[in-house]
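User: Some background: our group keeps a shared notebook of sequences we're curious about, and every so often someone picks one and asks for a predicted structure to add to the entry. Today it's my turn. The entry only has the sequence so far, pasted here. Could you supply the structure so I can complete it?
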Amino acid sequence: MLGVDLIDVSLGNGGWRRPEGHQGEDYLLPDATLLKSYVNLPIIGVSGIETDAFIDDLIANNKVAFVALVRAILSDPCG
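Assistant: Of course. Here's the predicted structure to add to the notebook entry:
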């Protein structure tokens, strides 16, 4: 049987055309949090995440199960 193992909350727009009001690290956290309240699946936090301190907070406080990084890696690939 096919099913869903996890959910990646993303706008899929590359971050360069963010909708108005979506600013800062993980600007989709409110959407991920809402979705998490309706499903019993791991949620991936994504969208503008840039700092390890922010990642630590997301994971330590059970806001998301995983974090997807692109912006931080692109801005400092040797980081």
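Suggested note for the entry: Residues 29-38 form the longest helix (10 residues). The CA atoms of residues 37 and 57 lie 18 Å apart.
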